[in-house]
């Protein structure tokens, strides 16, 4: 079955430290992978995507993600966390359906950055 | 400003009372979709639409209806709401689908069915 997993419900990190939010996937064919962020009382916002090419993808707000085909992972990273990065983060993978594609979302990881 | 607008943002209703959540986008996007967000389950797709007059079921369509009479609007209809439809609902749109483009989300509609 095609799926995406975020193994951590919450990640806590001190401001200024590097952060990693984990995502693994299971999909047939070449994966298209996405990260979205949800701030309190807001809709999801696109952060970055991997379609093909360089395994390290850079996105908004200083975030980046590393695609690892052998480990079927797409972890989100940031070198230096900010308190304002505290939010809910969703990993998503594209899967084909009969007339289009759809995104399957992970269950989300809450990132808490402490001052 | 490019945006997806949902209304109402908050709604408390009772079992069986028909309601509609409206969604409108001003980006001339062909693709629109509805999701519900529940704790521990992430986002699940309810319905989607590839273009005007074209709608298809997502993963959890039971109890919902949609229509796409105009490109910009994609209302979600709950004909007879039940408590298990208490959830946070999001409308989203994109240019032509999700393959390579990003989804633009509305700010959500929190629905409580008593």
Describe this structure in words.
- The complex is a heterodimer of chains A (115) and B (114).
- Chain A has strands at 3-5, 10-14, 19-21, 24-26, 33-38, 44-50, 56-58, 64-68, 73-78, 87-96, 101-105, 109-114.
- Chain A is globular.
- Chain A contains no helices and 12 strands.
- Helix content of chain A is 0%, strand content 54%.
- With 115 residues, chain A is mainly beta.
- In chain A, strands 2, 5, 6, 10, 11 and 12 form a 6-stranded mixed beta sheet that branches.
- By secondary structure, chain B is mostly beta strands.
- Helix content of chain B is 0%, strand content 50%.
- Chain B contains no helices and 11 strands.
- Chain B has strands at residues 4-7, 10-13, 19-25, 31-38, 42-51, 54-57, 65-66, 76-78, 87-94, 104-105, 109-113.
- In chain B, strands 2, 4, 5, 6, 9, 10 and 11 form a 7-stranded mixed beta sheet that branches. In chain B, strands 1-3-8-7 form a 4-stranded antiparallel beta sheet, with no helix packed on it.
- Chain B is globular, with a radius of gyration of 13 Å.
- The termini of chain B are far apart.
- The mean pLDDT of chain B is 93.
- The chains are: A mainly beta (115), B mainly beta (114).
Entry keywords:
heterodimer; A: 115 residues; mainly beta; six-stranded mixed beta sheet; four-stranded antiparallel beta sheet; globular; B: 114 residues; seven-stranded mixed beta sheet
């Amino acid at each position: 079955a095609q799926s995406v997993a975020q193994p951590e419900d919450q990640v806590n990190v001190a401001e200024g430290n590097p952060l990693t939010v984990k995502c693994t996937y299971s999909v047939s064919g070449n994966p298209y992978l996405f990260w979205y962020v949800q701030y309190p009382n807001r809709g999801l916002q696109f952060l970055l995507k991997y379609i093909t090419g360089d395994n390290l993808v850079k996105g908004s707000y200083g975030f980046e993600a590393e695609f690892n085909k052998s480990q079927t992972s797409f972890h989100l990273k940031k070198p230096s966390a900010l308190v304002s990065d505290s939010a809910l983060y969703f990993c998503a993978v594209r899967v084909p359906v009969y007339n289009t594609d759809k995104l399957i979302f992970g269950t989300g990881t809450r990132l808490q950055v402490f001052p | 400003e490019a945006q997806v607008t949902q209304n109402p943002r908050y709604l408390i209703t009772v079992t069986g009372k028909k309601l509609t959540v409206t969604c409108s986008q001003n980006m001339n996007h062909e693709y629109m979709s509805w999701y519900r967000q529940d704790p521990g389950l992430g986002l699940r797709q309810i319905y989607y639409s590839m273009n005007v007059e074209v709608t298809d079921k997502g993963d959890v369509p039971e109890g919902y209806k949609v229509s796409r009479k105009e490109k910009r609007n994609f209302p979600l209809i709950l004909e007879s709401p039940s408590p298990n439809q208490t959830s946070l609902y999001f409308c989203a749109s994109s240019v032509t689908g999700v393959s390579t483009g990003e989804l633009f989300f509305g700010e959500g509609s929190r629905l409580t069915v008593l």
